[in-house]
Amino acid sequence: MEIRKHWLPLLIFGGGLMLSIFSCQHEPITIEGGDNNPIDTTGNNPIDTTGNNPTDTTMHGTPCDPDVVYFELEVLPILRSNCAKSGCHDENSAQNGVILVSYESVMATAEITPFNLGDSELYDVITETDPDKRMPQTPNPALTSAQINLIAAWILQGAKNEVCDPGAGECNTENVSYSADIRPILDANCLGCHQGATPYGGFSLETYNDVVAKVNSGRFYGAVAWEQGFVPMPFGASMPLPDCSLDKIKAWIDAGTPNN
Ligand code: HEC
After folding, report:
1. Is pLDDT larger for residue 56 or for residue 109?
2. In this structure, are residues 200 and 193 in contact, taking their beta carbons and an 8 Å threshold?
3. What is the structure's pLDDT at 43?
4. Measuring from each residue's beta carbon to the nearest atom of ligand 1, which residues come in under 6 Å?
5. Residues 104 and 53: beta-carbon distance below 8 Å
6. Are 221 and 50 in contact (CB under 8 A)?
7. How far is the CA of 233 from the centre of ligand 1 (A)?
């Protein structure tokens, strides 16, 4: 936990400094071995769960209502993947005091006014048209309109932390489609870190070929299934992807990773 100690004074110092609204360090995010690694992956549990709320957010038996936006299932993965990065809005960096790693930290630091988009700083910065002010900052791509719409709907529904059991309904693992089933899971949960010129882990998951290459390397499924000997993905999450997502990924791999 050497690195954590090293970052703590930075965090306190950074919190005291009132930097320009929502800016974030421009340093490229690279993950390398050794002491320069901004993410502490030493030790048996590489996930920094400080500030996470490890409560079980999948309320068993409560089916998910398609009209409700579920924070931990739908919104948090977007924030984690695109914003809660080292140098930006993870616990250690906390640029401008904004930490986007859990419901509690988001509500405490991201200036969200429930039911009111105009008064919600988070919504403001993700829809900012000036690329110098937009979040995520360039060179990171802007959130997609689907992601922005989801965050907007969540705020308009009162920015609540509703829970449901994504496994309560049917999980259809027959004829799993890369474009209709797998791609949306990866876009929501992985892409923010595994894309662009300097992706986390040193590889991208942007294209079909990227994903298949990772699957064929033998490092993909074990990581998402949180198997022993793998770094659990999504990195920093307090729990694995919902069972149905994992079942679909497994079925797709077992079917030979079709490009369908
Ligand atoms: C918050 C950033 C972040 C997110 C989100 C994320 N990853 Fe990663 N990923 C990383 C980092 C960092 C590493 C390198 C970890 C290491 O080597 O210590 C990594 C490594 C991996 C590895 C290699 C693991 C191993 O043990 O060899 C796989 C596979 C992977 N990620 C897949 C995914 C998938 C699939 C998702 C979405 C379900 C995802 N990642 C989401 C940051 C992230």
Report:
1. 109
2. yes
3. 37
4. 31, 39, 41, 46, 80-81, 189-190, 192-194, 200-201, 214, 219-220, 223-224, 230-231, 233-236, 241
5. yes
6. no
7. 5
